[in-house]
Amino acid sequence: MFELLKSDSLTKARLGRLTTAHGAIETPVFMPVGTQASVKAIDPRELLEMGTQIILGNTYHLNIRPGMEIIRAAGGLHRFMNWDKPILTDSGGFQVFSLAKIRKIKTHGVEFRSHIDGSPLFLGPKEAMEIQRTLGSDIAMVFDECPPHDAPAREQKLAVERTIRWAGECREQPRAAGQLVFGIVQGGSNPVLREECAKALVPMEFDGYAIGGVSVGEPEPEMFRAVELTEPFLPAHKPRYAMGLGTPAQLVELIARGVDMFDCVLPTRVARNGTVFTRKGTYILKNAENKMNFGPLEDGCECFACRRFTRAYLRHLYNVQEILAIRMLSVHNSYLFLKVMADVRAAIANDTFSDFYRDFIAGYRPTQRVLLARAAAKER
Amino acid sequence: MFELLKSDSLTKARLGRLTTAHGAIETPVFMPVGTQASVKAIDPRELLEMGTQIILGNTYHLNIRPGMEIIRAAGGLHRFMNWDKPILTDSGGFQVFSLAKIRKIKTHGVEFRSHIDGSPLFLGPKEAMEIQRTLGSDIAMVFDECPPHDAPAREQKLAVERTIRWAGECREQPRAAGQLVFGIVQGGSNPVLREECAKALVPMEFDGYAIGGVSVGEPEPEMFRAVELTEPFLPAHKPRYAMGLGTPAQLVELIARGVDMFDCVLPTRVARNGTVFTRKGTYILKNAENKMNFGPLEDGCECFACRRFTRAYLRHLYNVQEILAIRMLSVHNSYLFLKVMADVRAAIANDTFSDFYRDFIAGYRPTQRVLLARAAAKER
């Protein structure tokens, strides 16, 4: 199911192939996020053109709207949204703990109220797996508890205990035909909890392992630490998935630390704010310097937007709130994430990943927030 | 420049070909509207796929944003927006009279304040033609005065006088290479004014003639009357363009009355409100009956959206405010307008237009507003 094709000799980077019910995925892979059964502003043809191998769907959101009655009648999520390639669904755990306003943690899941209309809902291992079975995703995630990064030690410990227990319960639920299930390791930045959680999940023989409890507001050094504390305890012959991350540079850093799979809303979310991702970092399209710039969003980029439109044109469209601006920024940003992954795979295959890694990080200017977090970490 | 290929024997419908600097246009033709240098929510590839022959750009809006400095630096509107087929630009007259808040009509144009930032601007025959020269449109429109449909007789008369005078001034301005210029007939629903305006403009030998002063809030019978009062005075060997109209059924009605060209924001505007155009009329996508409808937006439609997505899916996307919903409704609605024109052209060519006309109107259910206006007109 997962073939480890090559391990880099100088870093922990890995080249792999994950076979699912809807086809094979070459790893390292970036998975565009289609929370509500659509990757925001992008259509399936554009996704295929930019080299998308697998997309994400969201259990929490899809269960509320459109609801499982419609998904079931449509014949599952693939047919509902007309996407024939693999889909990974998260379990809804993250949203229950981040979005739902009122919640009560019980032995077999969480009672909460919908963030849309306040109606009472219950999500636990049994329910999350049943929804994912109805969605018919190729990869289902276990239902976990994901506390904020600054949660007190006792809460982190309780979350790990519940995550382990719920993972066991998820393991026992029926699956859709050919559906893979991944476990999720929690534990914040606590080495003992990370090790304990990983060591409890590995014997359950999940098809892959995710590192959760990252992308929950923690500074970058803490995020790297969480991954470094978890990775050594994960089996080499299974794919590793860092949830909800990150910038292109962070993805390359995490690949060098042994991670194979990523998902992130950043490329489409910042597109809607007029931010452009490049191999050198981000820039703001609205800035005056782009007013008369008749070059593409990023020099040398081969995406649909860069082959057709100039910065000056897209800046104008963004300023006058034309949807095509957001469409094309979403396409460009997503393409960049996917293309960096393709370049990483080629570099690992050619034994040049450590050079690629060094050059990519040297060329990428992180945001001020990331730079400040790094400086603070060094002072400690 | 305009070839009248065929005239229908039973109606006034005409088959023609208009040759422009960026290629030939088969008429009757529908022109999607790209007010701000983008047909809302649709990209140029999608426009080409749906059979778009020519699009509209807007002098008033483009002059404010991005402004002519940027358009000039880009090398004109075609290059700015990466559209190689014909473009028609309106003169800004309509917007000056409908959008600009404070205005003062002078001998050589209108002083007004931008609806965006209140900055003082002046637009008249000279300015409008100069902007359209910079835009480099294939068809430029003269600067006219377009009063509301309920304007008093004296105002209508003054508007016609100014429109004639300004048309003469436009005629004398320099043009972009190969640029055609169309005159615009005003006069509301007053037979004398319509005749007077047409008879004054025809000797000026414009490349085509538009019927203006329609789509300004008048009930449908009054709109048809304005066209019927104007058409007999227009030369047969020049294209006729009814500005800002209408529904698919109205387009077919107007073709039967001798009109060749149309533009309208309806297909993309109502898409953003979740309204779907079909050959049977419109429907509201949100309605509960579409909840579990796994057929296309319109049965038998071959558009990009109908070949890929179901009503149930697009209804879900619309409900959760995903951009893909508005994109696909805009594509479907625009495709329908273009396809009806293609069917009309085939019917005229095959001598079956009068059958097509009868069947199309019989099958199309107008909106309640149109039905009420028709009933009121019959009672008179």
What report would you give on this structure?
- 2 copies of one chain form a homodimer.
- Chain A has 16 helices and 16 strands.
- With 380 residues, the first copy, chain A, is of the alpha/beta class.
- In chain A, a hairpin with a 2-residue loop joins strand 2 and strand 3.
- The longest helix of chain A is centred in the last third of the chain and has 27 residues.
- Chain A is globular.
- Chain A starts with a strand and ends with a helix.
- The model of chain A has no long low-confidence stretch (mean pLDDT 96).
- Chains A and B meet through helix 3, helix 13 and helix 14 of A and helix 3, helix 13 and helix 14 of B.
Quick structural summary:
Chain A has 380 residues and is an alpha/beta fold. Chain A has helices at residues 44-49, 59-64, 68-74, 77-81, 93-98, 125-135, 153-172, 191-201, 220-230, 248-256, 266-272, 304-308, 311-319, 323-349, 353-363, 368-379, and strands at residues 2-7, 14-20, 23-27, 29-31, 55-58, 87-90, 103-106, 109-113, 120-123, 139-141, 180-185, 208-211, 240-242, 261-263, 275-278, 281-284. At the A-B interface, helix 3, helix 13 and helix 14 of A face helix 3, helix 13 and helix 14 of B.
